Structure formats: structure tokens, C-alpha cells
Amino acid sequence: MGYLLLGAAIAAEVGATTAMKYTDGFTRLGPSLLTVLGYVVSFALLAQTLKTVSVGSAYAIWSGAGTAAIATIGMVFLGEGMTVTKAAGIALIIVGVVVLNLGGAH
């Protein structure tokens, strides 16, 4: 159940960060409310996750998956270019999360 909550926390964080792109510096009410709500939901779900998943694993997965997802959304939907450096960075994030979990961050 902890990893299901973690997945939902990641989805909420990715949604909030994506909405932030459209806040225009927090001058647009709708996207600003979505951003705040998304982060509140994300942190609440992350806090619940920590009841059953170690903080090291949970935070590594939450931040790494969120970062990789946002970078991908930027490239696929927001016209941000793909470079070898960006691809390598995303790959390193994924490898880092896997290594932390294999290394006993449970």
C-alpha cells in the first residue's frame, strides 16, 4: 500500500509542477490553486507513505521519479529540446534511485 500511496504522491507533485508552468508567476488563479492543491496532496500522501516505506527510499523515488517525469513532460509537451546531457541526467536519476533501493535504503 505504501508504494501505491507513493505513486499517487508522485502524480500529484508532477501535476502541481506542471500547473505551475501556467501560473504566470502566480498571477493566474486557476493554475495557482492547482499548484498549491497538488503540492498539499503530494506532501500528505508522502507523509502517509513514510508510515510503511523508509524515508530514504520514499524520498529518492518521489524526487527522482518526479524530476524525470517533469523533464520528460517538458520535452514532449512543452517544446523543450532533448539533448544528450538531458537524457544522461534522466538516466542517472533512474540509476541512482535503483541503486539506493538495491543498497538497502529500506
TrEMBL record:
<keyword id="KW-1133">Transmembrane helix</keyword>
<feature type="transmembrane region" description="Helical">
    <location>
        <begin position="29"/>
        <end position="47"/>
    </location>
</feature>
<feature type="transmembrane region" description="Helical">
    <location>
        <begin position="59"/>
        <end position="78"/>
    </location>
</feature>
<keyword id="KW-0812">Transmembrane</keyword>
<feature type="transmembrane region" description="Helical">
    <location>
        <begin position="84"/>
        <end position="103"/>
    </location>
</feature>
<keyword id="KW-0472">Membrane</keyword>
<dbReference type="InterPro" id="IPR037185">
    <property type="entry name" value="EmrE-like"/>
</dbReference>
<dbReference type="InterPro" id="IPR045324">
    <property type="entry name" value="Small_multidrug_res"/>
</dbReference>
<protein>
    <submittedName>
        <fullName>Multidrug efflux SMR transporter</fullName>
    </submittedName>
</protein>
<dbReference type="GO" id="GO:0005886">
    <property type="term" value="C:plasma membrane"/>
</dbReference>
<dbReference type="GO" id="GO:0022857">
    <property type="term" value="F:transmembrane transporter activity"/>
</dbReference>
<keyword id="KW-0813">Transport</keyword>
<keyword id="KW-1003">Cell membrane</keyword>
<comment type="similarity">
    <text>Belongs to the drug/metabolite transporter (DMT) superfamily. Small multidrug resistance (SMR) (TC 2.A.7.1) family.</text>
</comment>
<dbReference type="InterPro" id="IPR000390">
    <property type="entry name" value="Small_drug/metabolite_transptr"/>
</dbReference>
<dbReference type="Pfam" id="PF00893">
    <property type="entry name" value="Multi_Drug_Res"/>
</dbReference>
